[in-house]
Amino acid sequence: MIRALLLTLGLCAVAAPASAAVTLCNQTTYILYTAVGYQSGSQAITQGWTRIPPGDCATPKLQPVGQFFFLSAKSSRAHSGPSHVWGGALRYCVKDTDFNLKTALGAQSCGSDDAFLTPFSPVNTGGAASWTTTLTESSRIASLDVARAIGIARLLNDIGYKIVPDKGPANKSFDDALKKFKAKMRMPTTASNDELFDALETEALKATAPAGYSVCNDSDGDIWAAIGLKQGNDWLSRGWWKVAPGACARTIATPLANDKIWLLVQGPTRHTLVGGPDRFCITDLEFETHARDKCQTHGLSEEGFAATNTKGLPGYAVHIGNNGLVPTKPAAN
Q1: Beta pairing partners, 48
Q2: End-to-end CA distance of the chain
Q3: Which residues on neighbouring strands pair with residue 57, listed in sequence order?
Q4: What is the C-alpha to C-alpha distance for residues 59 and 70, in angstroms, rounded to an integer?
Q5: pTM exceeds cut of 0.70
Q6: How many other β-carbons are positioned within 10 Å of the β-carbon of residue 38?
Q7: Element (H, E) at 152
Q8: Sheet containing 248-252: which strands, arranged edge to edge?
Q9: Residue partners of 68: CB distance under 8 A and separation at least 6
Q10: Sign for the pseudo-dihedral over CA of 197, 203, 204, 209
Q11: Which of 93, 120, 285, 302 could potentially form a cystine with 295 if both were Cys, beta carbons 3.0 to 4.6 Å apart?
């Protein structure tokens, strides 16, 4: 099970005259997903997630209104070990996937099955026209450049490359590992840091099985995935997740409590790549339904799903190739 570790939020705010935008910088060794929010009357407006690789800065889609805003961040699920959360004493609603929410201030619940409260830290901009907030991890990581270099080394280790510890990224084992990784991924020597972190995160997602249920696309084209599961006495089917080649989609975000998850995967022409004898209700568009029988009565279609055995595992990842389900040994984080 992934443990949430609340770390100190390092706020390094600098006023600058150029722009009225809030900028977030990542001076940690983790790929971060950030959420921001602000108060509007009696409501809290929250939005996420903005992805920021180590050593980089980004402008969140939601620009706070007023002198105060609040900020939360979480490490990418691609990293091995416990998940890390940057936040504070405030708690506001978020979702595991991208979201834009309005909830009552001081709410003790989020009023939605897939929304939950998470720690935020308040930031006082002092009314400055422009503001930069830097998330930090350790005083030893003294700059964005250092964070970027150690962040690359951390992801290489997450994937399985062996790097000599305590020598920092500037050593032969690091150079060899990075060279091998770029060769494996057929990356040009001119690849940008953004392209490198994208490739590292995608491969690390395949190497780890975070809590929940992930669908990874090892095929040459886009795939669409839907899942079915039992919740108490209720049957649930949900879809579609579009998964690009080489990417993974996390269809269930919480630790698994089911012996089986049922899976339906369709290929680029919407032909069935993974299916089975167990029938669930679906639609052609994005859907969530609690009906498993009499699908046509509810205005739904019916399709066969394949059962995947997840008994005793908090995390499970399936891999889909050009010919369907790729046999893999399930692994739990």
Answers
A1: 35, 99
A2: 7
A3: 25
A4: 14
A5: no
A6: 20
A7: helix 144-159
A8: 248-252, 212-217, 315-321, 324-326
A9: 38, 39, 122, 123, 124, 125
A10: positive
A11: 302
Show the CA angle centred on residue 87, arms to residues 83 and 88, nearest 5°.
Answer: 135
> Tens digit of pLDDT per residue, the chain (333 long)?
223 333 444 444 444 333 348 999 999 999 999 999 999 999 999 999 999 999 999 999 899 888 889 999 999 988 876 678 888 888 899 887 789 999 898 888 887 667 888 889 999 988 888 999 999 998 889 999 999 999 999 999 888 888 875 555 557 888 899 999 999 999 988 889 999 999 999 888 877 656 788 888 888 889 999 999 988 888 999 999 888 877 788 888 778 888 899 999 999 888 999 999 999 999 988 888 887 878 888 788 999 999 999 877 888 888 888 889 987 544 433
Distance between CA atoms of residues 32 and 51, nearest Å:
6
Q: How many CB atoms lie within 10 A of CB 44?
A: 22
Q: What is the phi/psi pair of residue 195, to 5°?
A: -65, -40
- Strand ranges for 29-159 from DSSP E: 32-40, 43-52, 57-58, 68-75, 83-86, 90-95, 99-104, 115-124, 131-136
| Residue 264 to residue 326: CA distance in whole angstroms | 14
Residue holding tokens 């030893």? 140
Give yes or no for a contact between 312 and 328, defined as CB atoms under 8 angstroms apart: no
Residue 118 CB neighbour total at 10 angstroms: 22
Q: What CA–CA distance (Å, rounded) separates 72 from 256?
A: 25
Angle between helices 193-207 and 144-159 (to 10 degrees): 30
Asked if residues 35 and 98 have their Cβ atoms less than 8 Å apart, the reply is no
Amino acid letter, 234? D
Phi, psi of 276 (to 5 degrees): -165, -165
DSSP characters for 6-31? EE------EE-SS-S-EEEEEESSS-
Structure-token pair, residue 218: 């090892």
C-alpha span between 128 and 81 (Å, rounded): 38
**In the block, which residue shows the tokens 């690359």?**
152
| Alpha carbon distance 313, 256 (integer Å) | 7
* Token code pair at residue 251: 């269809």
Six-digit token string for 314? 């908090």
